[in-house]
Amino acid sequence: MHNLTIKQMSEKLHAGEITSVQLTQHYLDRIDQYDGALNAFVTITPELAISMAEEADKRLAAGEAELLTGIPVAHKDIFCTDGVKTTCSSKMLDNFIAPYDAHVVTQLKKVGMPILGKTNMDEFAMGSSSESSYYGPTKNPWDHKAVPGGSSGGAAAAVAAGLAPMATGTDTGGSIRQPAAFCGITGIKPTYGSVSRFGIIAYASSFDQAGPMTRSAEDSAWMLNAMAGFDERDSTSLEREKPDYSATLGDSLKGLKVGVPSAYFGEGLDAEVAKVVKSAIAEIEKLGAEVVEIELPNKDLAVPAYYVLAPAEASTNLSRFDGVRFGYRCDQPKNLEDLYKRSRSEGFGEEVKRRIMVGAYALSAGYYDAYYLKAQKLRRKVRDDFTKAFEQCDVIMGPVAPTSAFNIGEKSDDPISMYLADLYTIPVNLAGLPGLSVPAGFANERPVGLHIVGPYFSEPKLLNIGHQFQQVTDWHTHVPAQYK
Amino acid sequence: MPLGKTEVEYISRLAQIEVLEGDVDGVAAKLTNILDLFTQMEAADTEGVDPMAHPLDAVQRFRADVVTETDQHEKLQAIAPAAEQAHYLVPQVIE
After folding, report:
1. How many pairs of residues across A and B have Cβ atoms under 8 Å apart?
2. Opening angle at CA A99, ends A93 and A100, nearest 5
3. Do B91 and A360 touch (CB under 8 A)?
4. Torsion, CA B3, CA B18, CA A174, CA B2, rounded to 10
């Protein structure tokens, strides 16, 4: 049942061949069976899931169901979920029961998607391996020695292992696309402002963007239809008519101009990964696309600029965790300053503390111009590079990450090498563009993703390309042997 | 430039994060590595480039100044570490 496409599941639900309760119970059973070893979930919500499935079955029976009604979903533990523990995988929020729903949670509840639970992640979404979770690392279902990527590693692992048909993720510097690539699933980061950030625990607000993580581009299109749209509670939500993300999935790719930055295939890219990505682009050429060479001259400045800007935003966003209103409070505080400082140093993990400190320093008097302002100027240059490139091409293709999944522990003590794992995804966040990762093959027996980036609001085109690619390849249907 | 104990203490105060005596050197070394990464930005020419805060250069949206939220203090304070009579409790500030 868990290897059906969402379309097939939906057809069976609508035809009455299966019920949402049966489907939901099937996934809960698989979580029960496999998640002890995989650690993709922080919290499992079986009672909530079944009661929502019962409601969905009533809607299905009454003929009031939508396409996704009755199909269960797992939420990254960064989405506030009313009455459910929402931790951001931090000790700081280990006791936090969210008092309201994130907009995305509300949207998917309205559709009638039962909530299986909350997925594991890098603490406060700061990481590329899901190793920094307070609840321990998530394993990669393809190889338990490997990381699933991050920060949405639990979501990617859950979908890849068939513990959830679809999952929500967030992407600040690559946190949907890189784990999707590492786990062999499909994930899209929409244009900044397309999906409401309301109720998403903030990391770096000018970058944070939620999106779907699914087995196929078609599944992502349907899920994005349910997630996206204007929300007045998010001040950066775009007031714009929502397109039907699935309407153009079937379009031909004839005449599509694909920009390929040859510099992306130079030093630092694993040779096996390069081979896989090049052959995926060749496959897209066979579908009628034309490849043009492009340049992104400031690409190497994106990583340092991002690691100034995102921590700067994090240092202000995370000042709300003060041991007073919610979350962790240290024992026996001597005075107010001791309460703040010890609650924060005991409640946050190493990487989170590091980023808050870096951010506070970058914003401090004497360093603001050299670090923060300089990085904001580079952000514009990176964005302008893309604008110029899109004068020559419709989309840009390349690798999602420089390697396939690395081993657990391999980079966890070296922040800089971890930061560089996101060098292909970060520029897209700086520019606020949409980016898709689709499974494209294997390198060193671990999955590899093809990265497809387009101009603002080109999600329908990206998903169209992903879907057409998935009509002529079967990488997205591969399942890790022990999770068949 | 490598950070020293004085800088780490300064950053610790800015960030309101305690750094234990024995951790100062380790924290200083890792922060120094990150600041070294930032020095790559120096060589880039940004003369005449405007800083960019929002990818689509959108402006702040305003709403009418009307009440949209109802009083939920009981629900919101139920998850506080210490609250009493609609107030959050903290250690005594004034002796």
Report:
1. 160
2. 115
3. no
4. 0
Q: Is the pTM of this model over 0.80?
A: yes
The answer to whether A378 contacts B44, with C-beta atoms less than 8 Å apart, is yes
Across the interface, whether the CB atoms of A193 and B79 are under 8 A apart is answered no
Quote the minimal CA–CA distance from A192 to chain B in Å.
7
- For position A210, which CATH number holds? 3.90.1300.10
Q: Do A333 and B75 touch (CB under 8 A)?
A: no
Same domain for A114 and A34: yes
Q: Hey, is A187 helix, strand or coil?
A: strand
The H-or-E segment that residue A384 falls in is helix A374-389
Tell me the two tokens of residue A24: 């939901």
Q: Is A379 helix (H, G, I), strand (E, B) or coil?
A: helix
At position A56, the amino acid (one-letter code) is A
Could you say which of B16, B40, B51 has the minimum Cβ distance to residue A304?
A: B40
Residues of B in contact with A323 (CB under 8 A): 81
Domain residue extents for chain B: 5-41
* Domain assignment present for A282: no
* Strand ranges inside A52-99, DSSP E: 73-76
d(CA A435, CA A456): 10
Nearest CA in chain A to B8: A357
Residues A359, A364, A366, A369, CA torsion sign: positive
- Report the range of poorest mean pLDDT among A38-47, A140-149, B35-44: B35-44
Q: Which residues of A are annotated as catalytic?
A: 76, 151, 175
Residues A232 and A156 reside in one and the same domain: yes
CB contact under 8 A, A356 and B15: yes
> Is A274 part of a structural domain of the chain?
no
Q: Which residues form the domain of A417?
A: 6-255+396-483
Name the residue in chain B with its Cα closest to that of A206: B54
Tell me which chain A residues have a C-beta less than 8 angstroms from the C-beta of B18: 341-342, 344-345
Nearest to A235 among B37, B55, B61 (CB): B61
**Is A285 part of a structural domain of the chain?**
no
Give the pLDDT confidence of A169-222 residue by residue, as tens digits: 999 999 999 999 999 999 999 999 999 999 999 999 999 999 999 999 999 999
* b (16+ CB within 10 A) / e for A36-58: eebbbbbbbbbebbbebbebbbe
CA–CA separation, A457 vs A180, rounded Å? 21
Q: Is B48 in the A-facing interface, judged by CB distances under 8 Å?
A: no
Give the end-to-end CA distance of chain B in Å, rounded to a whole number. 42
CB contact under 8 A, A354 and B31: yes
Residue at A184: amino acid letter:
G
Round to whole Å and give the CA distance between A108 and A409: 35
Distances A482 to A38, A142, A272 between C-alpha atoms, Å:
11, 8, 24
Same domain, residue pair A163 and A305:
no
Residues A58-94 pLDDT 10s: 999 999 999 999 999 999 999 999 999 999 999 999 9
